[in-house]
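=== RUN LOG ===
request id: a7f3
mode: sequence -> structure
chains: 1
length: 483
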Amino acid sequence: MRMDQKLRAEVKEEMAKHKDCVEKDPYRLHYHLMPPVGLLNDPNGFIHWKGTYHLFYQWMPFKTEHGAKFWGHYTSKDLVNWQHEEVALTPAEWFEKNGCYSGSAIEHEEKLYLFYTGNVKDEHGQRESYQCLATSEDGFHFEKHGPVITLPEGFTAHFRDPKVWQQDGRYFMVVGAQTESLKGAIALFQSGDLRDWTFVRTLTGGDSGALANFGYMFECPDLFHLDGKDILIFSPQGIEPDGMKYNNVYQAGYTVGTFAPETGEYEHNEFVELDRGFDFYAPQTTIDEQGRRLLFAWMSVPDQNEQQHPTIKHKWIHTMTIPRQLQLKGDKLYQIPAKELERLRTHDAVIDDVVLNNEVKQINGVNGQSIELFMEDIEIEAGWFDVTISDAARIIYSSEQRVLTLERKSYVNGIVEKRQCKLEQLRDARLYIDTSSVELFVNDGEEVFTTRFYPTKDNEDVVFGASEKCRFSVKKWTLAKVF
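=== RESULT ===
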């Protein structure tokens, strides 16, 4: 307990020490969740409990690098206005001394149960991992109960990120894993009381099945039922690029199939990336009290030029995506911005009907650092159509190649880099632009691109262009500053 109190006091000191430096950063976001100081990564313990959304997150408050992680904590009543709370978990006990790693939350007997990975390393860098439990009656103060699962046979100590749910009168847990043959896998457990857990099987991955030899590690698994099918979201590591696919260092995506709780078997189709952009990893979902399946993700990717971000000199790095609602259409996951984000709109929309004919054009009032932009009824007769944001990011659709491209100027060397996907038709596009981030939702969420970008100071221009004739209607809203 003394170590826990000491760490909490040190976190408060660090926040106070660097508060002015952090807030002076021109790339600080307006309406995205960020760390008060230091490094933020995976969303953890996302839950709607007793009328409040709780989003915990991996947090290193003492530097802008990874280390012995804490669980930071945000709460909200409406998914728009968020309150940063006291640290939820500190790495104060023997079973977590090198970090309270990622995990999930569930309600049981009117208490909030957090499951997380305790990370332990010895002086030689050898790792141990424990799946741990902490409980709370009020959602803010947590009692730790220590490990409830130790490492089962057949897996290395890269065994982490428990996600728990209830089904058919039992509790299930999926854990990201690496087999002893160094293959990515997901382990499945079950329990009757959330305390005593039994290993059931390897759910997917490893040396056999549809995802055999699919990378060397699976992180952040999340298995849930949606629109009649069972979706498994996870983040594989070690996948080689394949044309337009898998071009980030690590990926985040999903499979669609059927989970049999009686046997633990999960039959599913191929892996599909959730987001086509540069910065999207470790997504986690929950069902809220309205019955919606909501998702947050980390707007970055591990080991992908992290220490090159311009925000580091202001003592912070990384952010969450906006909250998104998931819908399943056929075997395709669609993502749409949470409806509550409309409350960010501060004025009536600027509306225009636009015709371009081999030209570029700026539209009066359609610009800004913190805006929502919606283009619909897009008709591209031939050639390409593009939107350039602050001269630092560009969206291009080629009607001939049927390819959608997101370009940005690299924050490492200034060279233009791109991410792409096939898209038969561009019907509409909704963009959330927030100082140094862009989230693009295409065709009502059929495809999504998420990226950080760093425009020159005070550049708020939005420029539309077409190589031939193009028509569309555009709406633009200015969005409020929440943080």
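=== NOTES ===
DSSP finds one helix and 32 strands in the chain.
The first strand starts at residue 38 and ends at 49.
=== END ===
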